[in-house]
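Researcher: Sequence recovery benchmark, item below. Answer with residues only.
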């Protein structure tokens, strides 16, 4: 009944089991199953038999398939599956050509981020709700400790002091703003997420903070102001035109000012599964491609002071987010529906596996503007 799937995974290294719609169970690999694939109907059966990861993801989101057990292990099967969906792939690049990059950015950000903040807060760290990786020294540390360590690193390496004025690109739910403003830093944030701005405005009133929030695309933002530092945590993935981004940085930073940048990275530009394109990050999102970024940076007067690779920290971060999300399953489904629970569950566990398996990297860097303008 499972057709090509059965023959392809009969002796797979990771043992698992498939429960068919009639209740029959088929085992794969040797040893105790690490996870279970439950097929709830014929559509789920057809999706599995296709060995197409995009179709299998669609079936999971519809509820035709359930996954139980160790949620990292199913993703070990990905390399043996196909995922070629021409229309989905082509639209990513047609959209910005037809409507422009700024419109594409706004559509993608709105689709991903403009959900009630309680959705994201259901998996982010409750003390320090930062939607990017912490910096772990040990796997057993809490995400709060790891995130504050990154904030310390950013603060110290940007040489910030009370009275300095920073620009954060994509301030999210204000974790860095809270940290920085408590240390006397004036905070300006730029985002194209209206929900983020509304949340931060309320949060600023609660804390008595004077945060400046700008609803604009970075590529269109102009000002005569020069910031002491620019902080961009996990947003470079939404800004694939590095030449424009770096030119904007250079125009916004004061002489001698510093830029903190980090993000998930890949060796190939625009490498993204059809599931991610359809359900998580639309548009021409791209993981950071380090050699491409550095090539463009070399054409500016900016200089890199430090680059650090830390994919293990992003694995541990995503793993904790996924565990938090599963722990809040009932709340998420009741408030946001089964579909949103399933799509983010697949995304969070899948991303954790990609870092664990070394398919994705993570870099953070400190960039410095020259002391004297050209």
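Model:
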């Amino acid at each position: 009944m499972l057709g090509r799937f059965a023959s392809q995974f009969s002796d797979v290294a990771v043992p698992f089991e498939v429960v068919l719609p009639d209740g029959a169970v088929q085992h794969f690999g040797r040893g105790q199953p690490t996870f279970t694939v439950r097929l709830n109907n014929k559509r789920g059966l057809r999706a599995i038999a296709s060995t197409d990861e995009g179709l299998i993801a669609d079936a999971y989101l519809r509820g035709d398939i359930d996954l139980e057990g160790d949620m990292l292990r199913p993703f070990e099967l990905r390399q043996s599956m196909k995922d070629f969906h021409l229309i989905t792939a082509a639209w990513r690049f047609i959209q910005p050509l037809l409507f422009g990059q700024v419109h594409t950015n706004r559509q993608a950000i709105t689709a991903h981020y403009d959900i009630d903040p309680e959705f994201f807060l259901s998996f982010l760290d409750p003390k320090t709700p930062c939607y990017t990786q912490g910096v772990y020294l040990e796997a057993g540390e809490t995400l709060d400790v790891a995130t504050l360590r990154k904030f310390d690193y950013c603060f110290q390496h940007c040489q910030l002091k009370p009275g300095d004025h920073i620009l954060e690109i994509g301030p999210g739910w204000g974790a860095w703003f809270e940290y920085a403003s408590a240390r006397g830093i004036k905070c300006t944030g730029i985002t194209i997420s209206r929900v983020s701005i509304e949340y931060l405005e309320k949060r600023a009133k609660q804390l008595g903070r004077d945060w400046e929030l700008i609803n604009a695309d970075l590529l269109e933002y102009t000002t005569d102001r020069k910031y002491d530092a620019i902080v961009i945590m996990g947003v470079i993935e939404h800004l694939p035109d590095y030449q424009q981004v770096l030119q904007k940085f250079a125009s916004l930073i004061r002489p001698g000012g510093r830029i903190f940048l980090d993000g998930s990275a890949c060796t190939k530009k625009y490498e993204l599964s059809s599931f991610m394109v359809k359900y998580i990050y639309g548009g021409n999102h791209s993981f950071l491609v380090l050699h491409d970024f550095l090539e463009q940076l070399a054409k500016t007067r900016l200089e890199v002071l430090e680059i650090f690779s830390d994919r293990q920290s992003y694995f541990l971060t995503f793993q904790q987010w996924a565990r938090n999300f599963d722990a809040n399953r009932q709340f998420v489904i009741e408030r946001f529906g089964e579909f949103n629970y399933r799509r983010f569950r697949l995304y969070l566990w899948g991303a954790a596996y990609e870092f664990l398996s070394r398919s994705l990297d993570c870099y953070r860097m400190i960039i410095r503007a020259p002391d004297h303008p050209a």
